[in-house]
Write a structure and sequence with these properties.
The complex is a heterodimer of chains A (478) and B (236). With 478 residues, chain A is mainly α. Helix content of chain A is 70%, strand content 5%. Chain A has 19 helices and five strands. In chain A, helix 12 runs antiparallel to helix 13 and helix 16 packs parallel to helix 18. The C terminus of chain A is likely disordered. Chain B has 236 residues and is α/β, with parallel strands linked by helices. Chain B has a single domain, classed as Toll/interleukin-1 receptor homology (TIR) domain (Rossmann fold, 3-Layer(aba) Sandwich), CATH 3.40.50.10140. In chain B, helix 1 links the parallel strand 1 and strand 2. In chain B, helix 1 packs parallel to helix 6 and helix 2 packs parallel to helix 3. The chains are: A mainly alpha (478), B alpha/beta (236). Chains A and B meet through helix 4, helix 6, helix 7, helix 8 and helix 10 of A and helix 6, helix 7 and helix 8 of B.
Chain lengths: 478, 236
C-alpha cells in the first residue's frame, strides 16, 4: 500500500520517523521531498505522486506554509476525483485541521514523544480499516447546524454593507452637493455621480428621482464623449428599466432601441450584452402588444447568444480548435464550402485568393504574348501571300482576339465553344488569303487560348463586344 | 473582534478572518466567472469582498480597495484580461496593481507573524504591537490564489511569479468552481462538508436569482448579490 505523507514544517521529523516505521511494515511511504526533484514543475510531479497513492496521512502542526496548504488542495481534488480515499489526520495538540479534514476522525499527537508508538499503531490500524471513520462532528445535522450559523453571520455582516434608509438619505445628500459643484464646472464626473445617485434613489424606492438622475448622466455622457460609447448604451438601458418601473414602456422602448444600436456598433452583434438587450426589447414589445416585432427581437437575441457562445467556446484553449473544426465542417456540408469563422482562417483564404490572382495574371500575360506572336505570324503570312489587308479586316481579326478573350471568362466549355462558332462567323466577311492563312494557322490555338484564359475579369468583355460590332459594321474587304 | 489597523474608519468591516477579496475583471464577458467565484466563496462559508461592496460615497476608490485587501485574510485574483486592448493595445493595470497590494499585505503579515512584539501600550512602537496582535488574531498570514487560464504561459507573462504555483483553469465555469472550492476548503475558517458537486448543481439557481435582481434594478449591488448567493447555498 502506497501512503502519501503530508506534514507541516514543525512535524517533519515525526513524519520521517513514521515513514521509516511504515517501510518496516511493508507499506510504501511517499513524501514530496523524496519523490519530487527540486527544479521540476511541482504541480505536475505532485499530481502524479498523489495519483499513485492509495491513502493519505496528514501531520498537522502549527502554521502550515502555503506549500502545505497547496498540497492539501491537491489531495482534496484527488479525493473528489476518486470518490472515496482513506485520509488520516494526525493533529498536534492545540492545532486545527483544515475544514475538509474536520469530517474525519483525527488522531491526537502530543508534543512529547512518549505517545509515538501509540500514534503509529493507531495510524496503521486506521489505514488497515480501509475507508476512514467519519468524525461525530461530520454528521449531517452537525454540518447543517454549522452552515446555518455561518450563513447567519454572513448575513449580519452583509447588513453592515447595506446601509439603512437614514444612511442612504445622508449619502444622497452628500452626492447631491457633489453633483451640483460638478455640474457648475461641467465636469465629466457628472455622469458617474448622477448614476450613483440614481442607484441610491432606486434603493430608496424613488424611481422618478432615479429617472431624473439617469437623464442627467445621459446628457453628461453625450456632451463629453458622444453617442458611440457602451457607457451611453448602459445608461439608456438603465433609463429603460426605470421607465418601465414608472409605467412608461413606450419611452423605455425608445431607449432600449438606442442602447441596442450603440451596443451593435461598439461591442458587436455576437455578445451576451446584445443578446440580453434584444431579449429585453422583446419583452417590452410583448407588453405593448407588438408580438411580431417581439418575436423578431427574440430570434435576434437567440442568434446573438448562440454567436456569443460559439465565440466563447472557440476561444477556449483545448476544446476551442476542436469546436472550430466541427463548426467549419458543419458549414462546409451545409454550404458546399468552408466558411471562415475567424480572422485567421479568412486571412489564409485571402492568401489563397492572392495566389490565384497572381496565377491568373501570369496566364493572362502568357496569353497576350501568344496573341502578339500570332498577330505577328498573321502579318508575316499576309505579306507572304502578297494580299492587302483592309482596315476592316484588321479590325475583324482584332475583334476575334478580344472576343475570344471576353467569351472565355465567365462561361464554361459550352459557352467557349459557342463563342468559337461566333468568331468563325465574324471571320467570314474577310475571306482574304491572308485571313484564311491566319485562321488556318491559329484556329486551334484560339480555341485553346479561350479555355486557358476563361478567368479574365468580366469588364473586359464590353470593349470586345464593341469591337465585334464595329467589325461587323465596317469590316468589309475593300 | 479588534478593528484591524488597516481598516478605513468610515467603511463597514466584515470579519477579516472570513473575508475573501476578489480581484478580477468586472465586465460582461467575465461575469459568469465572477458569479462562480462569489457563489463558491459563500458556499464554503466565506464573505466575498470588493472595492464596490459598500455605498460610501465620500471614500476614494483606492482607499476602498486598500480597505478591502488589507482587511481580508484571503484573496483570489484572475489576470486573464491583462492583455492589449483597444487601438493602442493597452492592458488593464487594475488587476496586477491589486495583486501587488495583496502580495505586499502578505509580506507584511508574514513578517509580523514571524516576530514577537512586546511593547506596552502608550510606549514607542505600541502601534506595531497592536498590529502584531491583530495579525496574530487573524491566524495565518494573508493567502492568495491566482487563477490563470491554461492558454497563458505564466513564466513568460509574469516572470516574477514564476517561482509560485499558480492555479490554471480551462476557461470553463465548472473548472473555476473546482479550483476555488479546493483552495478554500483547505483553508482555515471554511465550513466543512462542501464539495464542488452541489455548488455546480445550485449555481444555476443563483444565476436565476441574480437575473431577477438585474431585471428589477438594472444593476445588481454587491450586498444584493451576496444575499442572492446566501439564499441559494446548497444545504448540507
Amino acid at each position: 500500500m502506497k501512503v502519501y505523507l503530508s506534514y507541516t514544517r514543525d512535524l517533519e521529523e515525526v513524519a520521517d520517523r513514521f515513514a521509516a516505521q511504515l517501510r518496516a511494515r511493508d507499506f510504501e511511504p511517499l513524501m514530496d521531498k523524496q519523490h519530487i526533484t527540486p527544479g521540476f514543475d511541482w504541480s505536475t510531479a505532485a499530481r502524479d505522486l498523489l495519483r499513485s497513492a492509495d491513502a493519505f496521512v496528514f501531520f498537522i502542526g502549527r502554521q502550515p506554509t502555503p506549500w502545505v496548504e497547496r498540497e492539501w488542495s491537491k489531495v482534496l481534488e484527488e479525493s473528489w476525483r476518486r470518490g472515496t480515499v482513506p485520509m488520516v489526520p494526525v493533529v498536534l495538540e492545540g492545532c486545527n485541521p483544515p475544514a475538509f479534514l474536520l469530517e474525519r476522525q483525527a488522531i491526537a499527537l502530543s508534543p512529547a514523544p512518549e505517545n509515538g508508538a501509540e500514534v503509529f499503531d493507531s495510524i496503521v490500524a486506521a489505514l488497515s480499516r480501509g475507508p476512514m471513520l467519519k468524525a461525530a462532528s461530520s454528521a449531517p445535522a452537525a454540518l447543517g447546524e454549522k452552515q446555518r450559523e455561518r450563513l447567519e453571520l454572513l448575513e449580519k455582516q452583509a447588513k453592515q454593507l447595506q446601509p439603512d434608509r437614514a444612511e442612504l438619505q445622508r449619502q444622497a445628500q452628500t452626492l447631491r452637493t457633489t453633483l451640483a459643484s460638478q455640474q457648475m464646472q461641467d465636469s465629466p464626473q457628472v455622469a458617474e455621480t448622477a448614476t450613483q445617485l440614481a442607484d441610491l434613489m432606486k434603493s430608496l424606492k424613488q424611481p422618478n428621482e432615479a429617472l431624473e438622475f439617469q437623464r442627467i448622466a445621459l446628457n453628461s455622457l453625450l456632451a463629453h464623449g458622444g453617442e458611440s460609447n457602451p457607457d451611453v448604451a448602459r445608461v439608456h438601458s438603465n433609463l429603460a428599466t426605470s421607465l418601465e418601473a414608472v409605467g412608461q414602456p413606450s419611452e423605455a422602448l425608445v431607449h432600449l432601441e438606442r442602447a441596442l444600436k450603440i451596443y451593435l456598433d461598439t461591442v458587436g452583434a455576437d455578445t451576451v450584452t446584445v443578446a440580453m438587450t434584444e431579449g429585453r426589447l422583446a419583452s417590452v414589445l410583448r407588453g405593448l402588444g407588438q408580438d411580431t416585432a417581439a418575436k423578431a427581437h427574440q430570434r435576434a437575441g437567440e442568434k446573438a447568444l448562440k454567436a456569443a457562445s460559439l465565440k466563447f467556446l472557440t476561444g477556449l484553449p483545448i476544446v476551442g480548435p476542436i469546436i472550430k473544426a466541427v463548426v467549419a465542417q458543419g458549414s462546409k456540408k451545409k454550404h458546399g464550402r468552408s466558411q471562415a469563422p475567424d480572422g485567421k482562417q479568412s486571412a489564409s483564404r485571402s492568401r489563397v485568393r492572392k495566389k490565384a490572382a497572381r496565377k491568373k495574371a501570369a496566364s493572362k500575360k502568357a496569353a497576350s504574348k501568344k496573341a502578339a506572336s500570332k498577330k505577328a505570324a498573321k502579318k508575316k503570312s499576309a505579306k507572304k501571300a502578297g494580299g492587302t489587308k483592309t482596315r476592316g479586316t484588321k479590325k475583324a481579326s482584332k475583334a476575334k482576339v478580344s472576343k475570344t478573350k471576353a467569351s472565355k471568362k465567365k462561361v464554361g466549355k459550352k459557352k467557349a465553344s459557342a463563342a468559337k462558332a461566333k468568331m468563325t462567323r465574324a471571320k467570314t466577311p474577310s475571306r482574304t488569303p491572308a485571313s484564311k492563312a491566319g485562321a488556318k494557322s491559329s484556329g486551334t490555338n484560339v480555341g485553346r487560348k479561350k479555355t486557358a484564359s476563361q478567368k479574365r475579369p468580366a469588364r473586359k468583355k464590353q470593349p470586345a463586344l464593341k469591337a465585334k460590332t464595329s467589325a461587323k459594321r465596317r469590316g468589309r474587304p475593300s | 473582534m479588534t478593528l484591524p489597523i488597516f481598516a478605513h474608519p468610515e467603511l463597514p468591516l466584515p470579519d477579516p478572518a472570513l473575508s475573501v477579496f476578489i480581484n478580477c475583471p468586472f465586465d460582461d464577458e467575465y461575469e459568469p466567472f465572477l458569479d462562480a467565484i462569489v457563489f463558491t466563496a459563500v458556499c464554503c462559508g466565506f464573505q466575498p469582498r470588493t472595492a464596490d461592496e459598500s455605498l460610501g460615497a465620500d471614500v476614494s476608490r483606492m482607499d476602498r480597495i486598500l480597505h478591502a485587501v488589507f482587511t481580508s485574510k484571503y484573496s483570489i485574483h484572475d489576470l486573464s484580461r491583462c492583455k492589449g486592448e483597444g487601438e493602442e493595445l493597452l492592458a488593464r493595470f487594475n488587476m496586477p496593481l491589486e495583486l501587488g497590494l495583496a502580495l505586499g499585505y502578505r509580506f507584511v503579515s508574514t513578517a509580523f507573524s514571524n516576530h514577537k512584539f512586546d511593547v506596552p501600550p502608550g510606549k514607542k512602537g505600541a502601534t506595531t504591537s497592536k498590529l502584531a496582535k491583530e495579525l496574530e488574531a487573524l491566524g495565518n498570514p494573508h493567502r492568495w490564489l491566482v487563477l490563470v487560464p491554461e492558454s497563458i504561459r505564466v513564466p513568460k507573462y509574469i516572470s516574477d511569479l514564476a517561482g509560485y504555483d499558480l492555479e490554471s483553469y480551462d476557461g470553463m465555469v465548472g473548472s473555476i468552481i473546482e479550483r476555488v472550492t479546493a483552495w478554500l476548503m483547505s483553508r482555515e475558517g471554511a465550513v466543512p462538508g462542501m464539495s464542488p458537486g452541489p455548488i455546480k448543481r445550485d449555481f444555476s439557481k443563483f444565476l436565476g436569482e441574480k437575473a431577477a435582481l438585474k431585471s428589477e434594478w438594472g444593476r445588481v449591488r454587491w450586498p444584493d448579490l451576496l444575499k442572492a448567493a446566501r439564499n441559494c447555498v446548497p444545504k448540507l
